[in-house]
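User: Hey, quick favor. My workstation is busy. Could you predict this chain's structure for me?
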Amino acid sequence: MIFHQAPALYSTNGLPPVTSVGGSLVTLASPSRYARIVFGNGIFVVVGGGTINIVQTSTDGINWTSQSIPGLTWCDIAFSHGTFVICCRNGGYTMYRSTDGVTWTNTGKAGIYATASPTLFVAIGTALITSPDAITWTTRTIGGSGWNGLCYGGGTFVALAGTSTTTAYSLDGITWSLSTRPSGAGNLYNSYGNGMFISAGATNAISYDGINWSASAGLVGGRMIYGDQGWVQSQTTSVGGAVKTFGMSKDGLIWSTSSLLPNLIWIDVAYGNGVYVLLSVYGTTAVVTLNPAP
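Assistant: No problem, here it is.
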């Protein structure tokens, strides 16, 4: 299915307006509950949980290939310095690693959430662990509990507590300190781009250092990514409660929403090869390109 949207969605912050232009809407094999998508080594990789428990890869976000991997409930994925790491919610929270998205190896370690800097992987499962290569892992101390929303950017690792506004941060992934986000701030998803962290969920908060946070009037919604053409956020909901299929922003502060795509619960988004690829829990992907309006 090919879709187009002609009207520009204009920002009010003086930055160039954003237009969503042509893209493709496709359905992956074995549609069921998909969880995450990431781009690395020239390919997109999606992981699924629920009833499918599979990994699929694509170079363009349109044509997908299923890969052979144990049937676990995959829930998170990270990529850095040539290696993918995926996490699961069962099987002892087993993590697997791969350099090509095709051949996967059990790390022997537990992790539900993962992120990475250019030189270090960080995962949280039964404990916080780090690794320079996704092979040799070391247990670290973080304090607090209920961590999710792992993210890295600007030289800082950040983790969000899932049941409070507590935030953990680290400059090296080894030594961690605690801070606090504004009351009610989002605690589900955390992203970094263009010099800014954004925590999204029921409400949003932003930080320019991962330590000091302020409330944001941004969209209420899901995971987001910053690419060459700006921010894109998956399955957003406006303040009035109307469901939108994705949000767009040049600066992460002023957002436009689009109902261009069908309401398929868009859960995640990745950026690579000049396009944004949105992933729905039902196994549908949408390839979207954003350009400044003429």
